[in-house]
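User: quick one, fold this
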Amino acid sequence: MKRLGLSLLALVLIVSTAQLAYAKGRKKRVEKVKGPAPVAKADEIKELKGEYKWGMTPQQVIEKLDAKIVAGFKSKVEKYRTDAAKSDMIRNEIKREKETVAKSLVKFDGQKGGWDVSIIDAEFVQNNGMSMLRYKEPKSTRYFFFSGDSLFKMFVAFDKDVVAGKSFQEFGDLMQQKYGKAQSVYRDVTAHGVKKQILDAFQWRSAEGDGLKLVDRSKFYDVYCLVIYDHTVEDRIAEIRKSAAAAAPKGSFVDSVIDKESDRDENDNVIDRITGKQVLKPGERRGGNQNIKVPSPTSGSNEMKAEDRAY
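Assistant:
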């Protein structure tokens, strides 16, 4: 009985992993759009990029963020300059925020962790000299991506109160008012044998060679995200990702679950049949709201906070 229990547990873990990988969209087919994306408003692109420039090292970005942190406390520092106790408290708070930024640096050197099943899981490739910094802004969280210690992409995840229940189309319309007319990108999905197209992203470009896109992460994280990037580097990373996906071993039990085109396949309730209990797929609900829990990295530079796991 003990051996049978362990076997069932292993099978549950395999199926759960496969279902999560499928939910991440490994099989989605994005429609190829014709022609280049429209050019976004230059002033808005400049505002979005802020003080950050492509090619900055992680340390240079950290220095910019440290300066932002200090500036954010300027009024408090001035207000309590003559109050030794409160001044000391504010200095400690500044120190903690700086340490949080520095500790957020993670190198994607092949060690799997929570970031591989997170809101940014599609933005990096393991074992290709990539790294990332995270910084909490007033109404969003910004992720800085580096290739060979050179900044090439920023991923901005808006807070839930910014989204405020708007559909992806509605939020996209608001972004088009800000950045200009966008190019709509659709993807093909198959559900219960019926194929249909779903709006996948809005995208723009800049005169300087930047790419900009609005992506939908509402299925699991209830947010929408802006991604701005150096087109040359991002295209190279995309080719690496495509090659890695093509080289992935096929024919395993996990692949048999993942590679089904439909939302459900004939084997996805195998655990139900063995145990007599229903196992929900990621994203399914059984009364009320359900948050998807994502495992956190074990320790060290791969540390990830709860707000990133269940955004």
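User: anything notable?
Assistant: Residues 2-55+104-309 form one domain.
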